[in-house]
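INTERNAL AUDIT FORM
Audit reference: QA-55
Scope: verify that the stored structure record matches its stored sequence.
Auditor: D.O.
Record contents follow.
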Amino acid sequence: MAAKKVAKKVAKKKRKPNPAFMRPMNISDTLAEVVGNKPIPRTEVVKKLWAYIKKNKLQDAKNRRNINADDKLKAVFGGKKTVSMFEMTKLVSKHLT
């Protein structure tokens, strides 16, 4: 019974966001065409990218993990036509300083 009480106390602690993720990042001119040119945190960059992808229906119909780049995204993705969602974050990080 004592173990259950300890587990409940640990579960009630609220998780703190990592301040490194919340720091505004400078955005390259190429990426600015998609998400805007204001410095914003990395998390917001990814949210805006997904909003752009969904608005323009760039998510692959068969394999939803892939993104089919249009001209603006192709420049961000280093000329690649199709990129997986996991590779996308890696390629986007090159445009953030």
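Auditor finding: record pair retrieved intact. The domain at 21-93 is CATH 1.10.245.10 (MDM2).
Action required: none
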